[in-house]
């Protein structure tokens, strides 16, 4: 029997997700959290660990402790914080490594701005939950490094990645030369800066957030289609036309959240319309089952019809946010349909957590439950958001 679209249902699912990560993710021998756990919930001992997933775990358990006030969640947040501070922090060059070995040795030491962003996101949430000054100090230090090396004062926005010593590099992971700016990095950097602003509301940070938001709305979100383009040169020349439905719907609510945190009436008015338009554009990627396709490439007319755990999580929040902003009932219907699909197709009642990928015909792929990119942040955050938006009690 499916759970209703209610606060209690989302709280229950949030607790279920947290229970999985408490049970299977911690590495009790080497500290921190396993870099990979199989579908059978068996850890892969030598799997490398990414700063992205470590920071997302830090954010998730910090959020859980802040909302649910359970000491065991704080313990897991502390474990993630200690691991990030001890093994990912580059004490010589500053910033955080992209990945480390299972033994905590630097594996990929480049300075990926996407990775720095999630470290700020996790650290700022940890500070929100604990008021632990060293966590805020680390987040401020990462902000200063990003501003010193990655900020583009002439053209707005931020460059993609740097060598371990913060010099220029052609090895960009998430992008390619000359595609030195990307949608994905800007989306998650503004997400991180927004969370940092909650606990450190300085004029410079506010200025940078406002500037980045303007760059996103001017260069990344197309005015004609209300969709985002993915990769750019330094001069913001777009280099592809691929439509990423999940990122479009995720951005629709994250960018509006930024305006809310800034308490800027002008930005709120500007983002209200854009958020709804972006949700409308993303909805064209919905299949008959109510789930978004992964992406569409106009150049080849190929649609990747896989359903992804993170896309479904973000579409539920994004469509409900559009309903809250517009009052249009069809958006609420889409959010409720997403919740039904998640329960029917993504929630793994046997092994726990959510499947990472479900095929268009509804068949789940029984891949790793935890890996270099898959953490608890998208689905745990979606449940927390819906719990809050429906009137958390």
From TrEMBL:
Q: What is its EC number?
A: 5.1.3.11
List this protein's GO terms for biological process. carbohydrate metabolic process
Q: List the InterPro entries.
A: 6-hairpin_glycosidase_sf, 6hp_glycosidase-like_sf, AGE/CE, Cellobiose_2_epim
Listed A to Z, the keywords are:
Isomerase
Q: Which reaction does it catalyse?
A: D-cellobiose = beta-D-glucosyl-(1->4)-D-mannopyranose
Q: Which SUPFAM superfamilies match?
A: Six-hairpin glycosidases (SSF48208)
MF terms in GO: cellobiose epimerase activity
* Pfam families reported in the protein's UniProt record: GlcNAc_2-epim
Q: Which HAMAP family match?
A: Cellobiose_2_epim (MF_00929)
Write out the function statement from the record: Catalyzes the reversible epimerization of cellobiose to 4-O-beta-D-glucopyranosyl-D-mannose (Glc-Man).
Family of this protein: Belongs to the cellobiose 2-epimerase family.
This protein is called Cellobiose 2-epimerase
């Amino acid at each position: 029997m499916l759970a209703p679209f209610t606060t209690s249902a989302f709280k229950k699912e949030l607790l279920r997700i947290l229970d999985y990560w408490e049970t299977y993710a911690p590495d009790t021998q080497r500290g921190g959290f396993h870099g990979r756990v199989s579908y059978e919930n068996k850890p892969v001992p030598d799997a490398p660990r990414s700063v992205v997933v470590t920071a997302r775990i830090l954010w998730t358990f910090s959020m859980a402790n802040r909302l649910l006030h359970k000491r065991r969640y704080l313990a897991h947040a502390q474990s993630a914080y200690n691991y990030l501070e001890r093994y990912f922090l580059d004490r010589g060059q500053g910033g955080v490594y992209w990945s480390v070995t299972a033994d905590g040795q630097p594996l990929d030491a480049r300075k990926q701005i996407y990775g720095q962003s999630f470290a700020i996101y996790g650290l700022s949430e940890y500070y929100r939950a604990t008021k632990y000054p060293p966590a805020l100090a680390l987040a401020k230090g990462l902000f200063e490094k990003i501003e010193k090396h990655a900020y583009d004062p002439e053209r707005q926005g931020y460059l993609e990645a740097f060598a371990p010593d913060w010099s220029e590099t052609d090895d960009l992971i998430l992008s390619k030369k000359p595609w030195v700016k990307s949608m994905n990095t800007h989306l998650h950097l503004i997400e991180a800066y927004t969370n940092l602003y909650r606990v450190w509301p300085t004029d410079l940070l506010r200025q940078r957030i406002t500037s980045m938001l303007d760059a996103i709305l001017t260069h990344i979100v197309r005015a004609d289609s209300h969709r985002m383009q993915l990769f750019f040169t330094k001069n913001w020349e777009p280099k592809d036309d691929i439509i990423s439905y999940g990122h479009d719907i995720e951005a629709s609510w994250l960018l509006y959240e930024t305006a809310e945190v800034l308490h800027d009436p002008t930005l709120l008015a500007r983002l209200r319309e854009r958020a709804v338009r972006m949700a409308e554009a993303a909805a064209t990627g919905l299949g008959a089952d109510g789930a978004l396709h992964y992406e569409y490439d106009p150049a080849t007319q190929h649609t990747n019809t896989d359903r992804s755990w993170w896309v479904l999580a973000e579409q539920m929040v994004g469509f409900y946010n559009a309903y809250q902003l517009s009052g249009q009932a069809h958006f609420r219907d889409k959010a409720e349909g997403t919740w039904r699909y998640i329960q029917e197709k993504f929630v793994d009642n046997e092994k726990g957590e959510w499947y990472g990928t479900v095929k268009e015909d509804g068949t789940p792929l029984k891949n790793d439950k935890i890996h270099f990119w898959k953490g608890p942040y998208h689905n745990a955050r979606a449940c927390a958001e819906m719990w809050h938006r429906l009137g958390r009690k």
